[in-house]
Amino acid sequence: MRLFLMIILFAVGPSIAQAQTIAGVDILDAGLVSLVDPKTINDPTISTGTMTRSIGTITQSTTTIEAATDVVFGVKVRLRGSPDGRTVSYRVVWKYPEPGLRNPDTGISKRTDEISERQPLGMTKCCYYWTLGAEWTLVPGQWVIEFWDGKRLLASQAFTLVKP
Length: 164
Fold this sequence. Notes:
Strand order of the largest sheet: 3-11-10-5-8
Strand content: over 45%
CATH class: Mainly Beta
Radius of gyration: 19 Å
Mean pLDDT: 89
Structural class: mainly beta
Low-confidence stretches: 1-18
Distance between the termini: 73 Å
């Protein structure tokens, strides 16, 4: 019986050691973001109906954001875990203050938006960001970005949107 258990442990041990583990998310910076060559993608699952993909750079570190159209804010992060370089899946959730975002085109109000992401462990990513657009997106109050691994909150960053 011991021999059987040793064989099983020897066989599955390496695969257990190689399992992806997200230890956490480090928020390296937060603030205003500049985008390079942004691309708009239709995404009916999020409040605005579109998502912007671009390489971003934080140009000013701040968590107080003056709400105005074309303002972009977000975070620079690094996923910690093992093994380094292994691509992992996680969720990014944006939470909005009351009364939430009400899209006049769809009539739907949302207090959160969620996207699934994939990124290698140990890699720094800039940026996860929000682009303020139409007047109905300029909701003052506390906006929060969260990073989740299943039901486990890995990190969060709050921003306070204020009217100029």
